[in-house]
Amino acid sequence: MTFSIVASDGVDVGVAVASKFVAVGAVVPHAEAGVGAVATQCYANPRLGRVILALLQHRSPREALEKALAQDAEREIRQVGVVNARGEAYVHTGGKCPYYAGHIVGNGYAALGNILAGPEVLEAMAKAFETKRGELVDKLLAALEAGDRAGGDRRGRQSAALLVLRPGGGYLGLSDTYVDIRVDDHPNPVEELKRIFHIWELTLLQREDPSDVVSKRDVAAEVQRALKKLGFYRGEVTGVWDEATEEAFRDWAGYENFENKIRDDDKIWGTVYRYLLSKLNG
């Protein structure tokens, strides 16, 4: 009883999902970097996720899905979407999935859902995904938001999740988890998911505009005042970026989990600088 989208851009693979169901992110999304993504929903059988991902290593999405479902006696009440890392997608919507149930398969994605307000939910998701510019994560969020605005799950709202994997794209390059966030119970879960994503993006994703930087020399006084107010800098506000200022700035960045946003030159990312000033003015 869910609407979701599985997609790949040839590098990233991911799933975005929302539902009138608690903690939908614990049931629907499955993915493996370099392999593909799966959404298991409608009286979901989450075991199918890992089975299909294993089969995708050597089979097409259609072959993998059909082979997995052949062992499921309840396949007519299941809905499963699959995409491989090349962007080839396939969906099974069982004949007994509750109305309205359906899916749209496009270039690099598949949108699917059941107990929807109507086909307009899937149509809105497909259009948003196809027209949104940016990375896969941006396109998935746009699709989920569009489906929600078009009526989504006709029973209401409760939870949402977003999972995007990229080879080596995780924290400090030590995992494949590019984005993995969930809203388990909320009156407006898609909007809350977007809010959490903005925090994740600011803190963990390294995709700033290269031109969005400020010179430490130009903002030294403002940074010193902010760090002094926050208790990280104990010197005088001199307007000179010295070793004490650098140490205080790095201490604050680590405290705020921005360690992967520290540059080794004489610049600060604009996103981090503005966040620091927001703390000063907060």
TrEMBL record:
Residues spanning the membrane: none
InterPro entries per record: DUF1028 (IPR010430), Ntn_hydrolases_N (IPR029055), PG-bd_2 (IPR014927), PGBD-like_sf (IPR036365), PGBDSf (IPR036366)
Domain Putative peptidoglycan binding, residue spans: 203-276
Lineage top rank: taxon: Archaea
Record protein name field: Putative peptidoglycan binding domain-containing protein
Organism annotation: Pyrobaculum calidifontis (strain DSM 21063 / JCM 11548 / VA1)
